[in-house]
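Q: Hi! First time doing this. I have a protein sequence and I read that you can turn it into a structure. Is that right? Here it is:
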Amino acid sequence: MKGRNVIIQLIILAAILVVVNLLSSKLYFRGDFTEDQRYTLSTATKDILEDLPEVVTVKAYFSEDLPTQLVSTRQDFEDLLLEYENRSGGYLVYEFLNPNENEQKEQEAQQAGVNPVMVNVREKDQMKQMRAYLGAIIQMGDRKEIIPLIQPGAAMEYALTTAIKKIAIADKPKIGLIQGHGEAPLEEMIELYQQLSVLYEIEPFTLSDSATVPQYYRSLAWINPKDTIPQADFAKLDKYLASGGTMFVAYSNLNGDLSQAYLSAANDIGVSSWLSRLGIQMGREFVVDAENAPVSVRQQMGQFTMNRQIAFPYFPIIKNFSEHPASKGLESIFLPFASTVSFTKTDTAFHSTNLLITSELSGLVSPPTTVDIQRQWTENDFQNSSLPVAMAVEGPLSGAASSKIVVVSNGQFIINGPQGQQQQLNADNVSFASNAIDWLSDDTGLIDLRTKGVTARPLVQLEDGTKELLKYGNVLLPILLLLIYAFVRKQRNNRKRQQWAAGNY
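A: Yes, that's right. Below is the predicted 3D structure, encoded as C-alpha cells:
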C-alpha cells in the first residue's frame, strides 16, 4: 500500500512538471534586478513588436563552442529573441545557425554580411585563436538589415529593435540638413546619421535653391555654419517656423584654436542676431568648468618624452540635465569651447528649458585670450554656477503658430570629421542630438531605448577630510572591533569562572 502511494505521488509530480514546462514554453518570464533594467524590454521595443505589419525573420549566425566570455552573449541574445517572439504574437521568428559547421554555411554567413571575428581560446594551457561568428540578419519581405556583431548588454536590444524598425518603415519622414554656408556635410557626421537613419531620411537642403522651406520636412538641422548667411535665408527660416516648423541649431559663436593657443570671438555671420530676434541670447564668453576633459601634453623628462594629462576647463564635461525628452537618460556630454545660452522673452506663451547645465564650479572667460596649458586652476577661477549651454524653446517663435527649437552653443560636438580623419564621438553627444531631433519631430519612441544602459560610472569626488577619515577608519575600525570582541569575551569567561567557583555549574 505504501509503495503504491509513492508511485502515485511520483506520477503526480511528473504531471506537474510536464504542465509547468508546457506553460513556461507559452508564458516567458524573467526577473530583472539590474539598476538600468537592461533585461526588461523598453516601451519602444514593445510598441514596435506589437505593430509589425508582417513577419520578421531573424537568422542568428553564432558559432558553437564559444569561449566562456562569449557564451553568455549567445544565451542573452537567444533569451531576447524568445521574448521578442512572444511579444510580437508570432510575427517574429528566429533560428540559430552555426557557420563553423562546414565551409558552405560559413560562405553563406559571409555572403549575408556576417563576418567572423578572431577571439582567443585557452586549450590545455595554450592560447589559440578561433574564428567566431556573432551576428544576425533581420529580414522582412525583400528588406533586410545586418547586425555584423552582437554586443552584450542593453546595446543588444537597441541594435535588434532599430534593425527591425528600419525594415518596418516603408516611407520614412525627412529631416532637412541645411547646407550652403560652410556647414558640416552629412558624411562628416556618420554617427549621427547612423542613429537618425533608423527613423528618418536625412536630406541635404540648400536654402538658396528654394523659394521656401518644404513643409514635408519633419524638422531642420543646422550644424556648424561658418559663412555669412544672407537675410533672404533667414526670412525663409522665419516663414518655416511661423508655419509650425522645428529646428535643431548647433552653432559656435566663439573660436578655440589650440594649435595657436588663442581664443577669440567668431566672425559675425548673422546666426547670433537671428537667434536674438527669436529671444535666444548666446553669450560672448567662454565657459570654463572644474568638471572637464583633460588634454594630453608632451613633456621632456631627461632623455625621454612623455605624455601628461592636464585638466583643461575649456573642455567642459556636462553632467547636469533637465527633465526633458532631449536629455533623458544621458550621463555626460563633451562640449568644448562653449558659451552660455538664455531665453530673454517673458511672454507666458513660451516655454523654455535649459537642457545642458555646467557644474557648480563654473566660470566665464572673455575673449580674446591666450591659452596657458600649464596654468594651475583654483576654485577662485570658477565664480559661476550651473550655466546653461543648450536649451529648448516652445512657442510662437516667428508668427502666431507654435514651433520648437533646440540651440546648442557648440557646432563641433557631433562632428566626426572628414573621411580618413574621423574620430569616434562621446556616445551621449550623439544620443543628445538624436533625442533632440526626435523631440522636435514629435517622435520620441526610441529615446528610452537609445539611452538605455549605463555608459559611465565616474568615482564620487570626496573632500580631503572625508578621504582621511575613510583611510584611517579602514585601518583602525577592524582593530577596534577586535578589541571590543576580546573585551566582551573576556568578561563573559570571567563571569563563567565566578559561577563555577561558587558551585553554579
